[in-house]
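Hi everyone, sorry if this is the wrong subforum. Our group has a chain we'd like a structural model of before ordering constructs, and none of us has done structure prediction before. Sequence below.
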Amino acid sequence: MTTSTPGAALAAMRPTQAYRCLVCGASFTAKDRRAKYCSERCKQAAKYRRTKKIKATPATPPCGGG
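Answer:
Right subforum, don't worry. Here is the predicted structure as tokens:
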């Protein structure tokens, strides 16, 4: 008898698929279909780019400009 949880059993049944990293373009395998990045380093690089992009856009005045 195993002591695994039902979630772990379902995760083990998922097929492994090949993906391409959105940051560096390397191919990697993952069981989660939401996977976008090959490593934690690429995940952090994408986060840095997103926050840098948000800070670079000028904020609109609350009155709508003018």
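For your construct planning: Strands lie at 17-20, 27-30. The first helix runs from residue 6 to 13.
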